[in-house]
Write a structure and sequence with these properties.
mainly alpha, Erythroid Transcription Factor GATA-1, Chain A, two-stranded antiparallel sheet, 4 helices
């Protein structure tokens, strides 16, 4: 069994579904539970760690567990739900990540990089017959 946390499990109650799979999600916070995602720990009667899980409604949880989506869609929605859930836990203080601090005590953030593409005009022309892009 992976790492268990009653606080992480309880935090799912009444939340919005983080999977929100179009055409599947029932958007009912009353059915949302903590859905354990596949990991190295999960398998043969073992669940993943509680921090490797996401908030999911009954319908989305069932679709993920029973592999009703394509592999690509399953990975996309699982990863997105994991990110949304972990962001909630971090913001709520349930998961603490030590941040590097500036001298002012504020967390350091990465500066946005300037790209060369934004400042250059893009030249376009139609392709000639037989010419490859």
């Amino acid at each position: 069994m992976g790492i268990m946390s009653s606080k992480l499990r309880a935090s799912a109650k009444g939340k919005d579904c983080a999977f929100a799979i179009p055409g599947t999600c029932n958007h009912d916070p009353e059915t949302v539970v903590l859905c354990h995602l596949p990991s190295e720990v999960k398998g043969a009667g073992n669940k993943s760690d509680d921090w490797h899980a996401a908030f999911g409604c009954y319908a989305c949880h069932e679709a993920i567990d029973q592999h009703r989506l394509s592999k690509e869609d399953e990975l996309f929605y699982s990863f997105r739900a994991l990110q949304r859930t972990q962001r909630y836990w971090i913001d709520a203080g349930l998961i603490v990540i030590p941040a590097d601090l500036k001298a002012s005590g504020e967390p350091k953030t990465r500066p946005k990089k300037k790209t060369q593409w934004a400042s250059r005009p893009m030249q376009s022309r139609p392709f000639e017959r037989g010419e490859r892009p």
